[in-house]
Amino acid sequence: MMVMRRLMKSPSRISLSRTSRPMATLFLCAGLAVVPAAAPLVASAAHAQSAGRAAQVTVTAPVNALYAALGRIQAPGSGTFDQRAQILAPVVDKVYNLETVLRGSVGLRYAGLSDGDKQQLLDVFRQFTIARYISSFKPGGDAHFNVDPTPRPSPVGNDQIVTTHIGSTEDPDGTEIDYVMRSGPDGWRIVDVLLNAHISQIAAQRSDFSSTLASGNVQTLITLLQKRVKALSAG
Questions:
Q1: Which long-range contacts (CB under 8 A, 24 or more apart) does 53-61 make?
Q2: Please, which pLDDT band fits residue 22 given cuts at 50, 70 and 90?
Q3: 2-14+49-234: which CATH architecture?
Q4: What is the pTM of this model?
């Protein structure tokens, strides 16, 4: 889908358990009362299933919140760029771990930056992230957001991956967009976005940012991002 391909290049359905016969036979052969023993087991299984569903909701909640906000900014009459930014900005702050995304996007050079440079870069990177979404999801847009309610483990570390599709009336299946989620002090947050389940937004941004840093310094990258924010806000 063109919207998400622009997001990635700019550095970016809802579909929404076992009994053991050998164990039951063992209980019967031993002359034990099966029904009273099974009741707490059933209750325990139901409790575990309920807890599992609650955990899944916690992981997917940030993605659902992001998509709800994107739906609002693409609604007809949702306002000017600045007005839509006011809608989206607090949601981006809540659902993303932007510092982790930025650190991965800059790469090894990030550790050598001063605290002041890190903060200045983070501020403009936040503006860039918000502007990129606003530019991609314009008022009157037809994007449809579908989130799989069952996250899957990431092959690396303890992260979880939430699978989604962004489509439209003409293209219901749309494009698969996956979100890498990481748990921290503030709960689950987005730390990377995967186009077609494997193209990392962080990797794409790192390639882009590295070439800029190689030809200058962090101020060069800050200036570049400021120019991109300005261009996106004018589009």
A1: 56/149, 56/150, 56/151, 57/149, 58/187, 58/188, 59/151, 59/160, 59/162, 59/181, 59/188, 60/147, 60/148, 60/149, 60/151, 60/162, 61/188
A2: very low
A3: Roll (3.10)
A4: 0.80
